[in-house]
């Protein structure tokens, strides 16, 4: 069995499914931004989002590796200004999601309840080529492939928050730690 980087997140192996791709010939930086956009989405919603990105109806917001990335008005819905439509990365991650979905189906998990728990993108060794420049010089011409791991999990049913705790939290809202500690000490003295 291969070791997964995000194996600690799969606390209940019966309720999770995984898929991984290694040495994928798509840009690491683009894949990282696609993964960040998908993490936490329901699987069905992720498929719809990726198909919209392929058709340029929605954008992948670029937040970390965004130097030289143009602005896109579609990025406003994600509270970002920059974005792209990385088609090759979308294609690779769609195939991995389908693989993880079929792994979940083999485990008899409910496909409608699956959420993308985590996606890990790591740099793979660079592929080296060369380009020939003026005056007899040679420069490197490297590719930046990546390794991708996907963990899908069955979404947990949400537990309702207790009412009495809400009252305590709302009375302390807007206070810093020192003010909260002072109130706690005063309440203990009384």
Number of domains: 2
CATH class category label of the largest domain:
Alpha Beta
Largest β-sheet summary? 3 strands, antiparallel
The number of helical segments is 5
Structural class: alpha+beta
- Write out the CATH superfamily name of the largest domain: Ribosomal protein L22/L17
Unreliably modeled segments: none
Order of helices and strands: EHHEEHEEEEHH
Helix content: 25-40%
- Strand percentage lies at 15-25%
The neighbouring-strand order within the major sheet is: 1-7-4
**Cα gyration radius (Å):** 23 Å
Number of strands: 7
Could you tell me the CATH topology label of the largest domain. Ribosomal Protein L22, Chain A
Distance between the termini: 59 Å
- Overall body shape: extended
Average pLDDT, all residues: 92
In CATH, the architecture of the largest domain is Alpha-Beta Complex
List the keywords.
single chain; 190 residues; alpha+beta; Ribosomal Protein L22, Chain A; 3-stranded antiparallel sheet; 5 helices; 7 strands; 34% helix; extended; structural constituent of ribosome; ribonucleoprotein
Question: What would you note in describing this structure?
Answer:
Helix content is 34%, strand content 23%. With 190 residues, it is of the alpha+beta class. It has 2 domains: 7-154, Ribosomal Protein L22, Chain A; 160-190, no CATH class. A 3-stranded antiparallel β-sheet has the order 1-7-4. It has a two-stranded antiparallel sheet with strand order 2-3.
């Amino acid at each position: 069995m291969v070791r997964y980087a995000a194996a600690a997140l799969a606390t209940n192996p019966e309720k999770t499914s995984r898929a991984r791709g290694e040495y994928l010939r798509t840009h690491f930086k683009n894949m990282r931004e696609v993964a960040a956009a998908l993490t936490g989405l329901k699987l069905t919603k992720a498929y719809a989002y990726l198909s919209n990105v392929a058709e340029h109806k929605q954008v992948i917001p670029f937040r970390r590796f965004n130097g030289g990335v143009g602005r896109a008005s579609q990025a406003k819905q994600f509270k970002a200004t920059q974005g792209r439509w990385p088609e090759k990365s979308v294609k690779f991650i769609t195939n991995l999601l389908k693989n993880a979905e079929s792994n979940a189906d083999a485990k008899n998990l409910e496909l409608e309840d699956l959420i993308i728990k985590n996606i890990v993108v790591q740099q793979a060794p660079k592929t080296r080529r060369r380009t020939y420049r003026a005056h007899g010089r040679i420069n490197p011409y490297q590719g930046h492939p990546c390794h991708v791991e996907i963990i899908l999990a069955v979404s947990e049913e949400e537990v309702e928050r207790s009412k009495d705790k809400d009252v305590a939290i709302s009375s302390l809202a807007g206070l810093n730690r020192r003010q909260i500690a002072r109130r706690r000490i005063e309440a203990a003295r009384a």
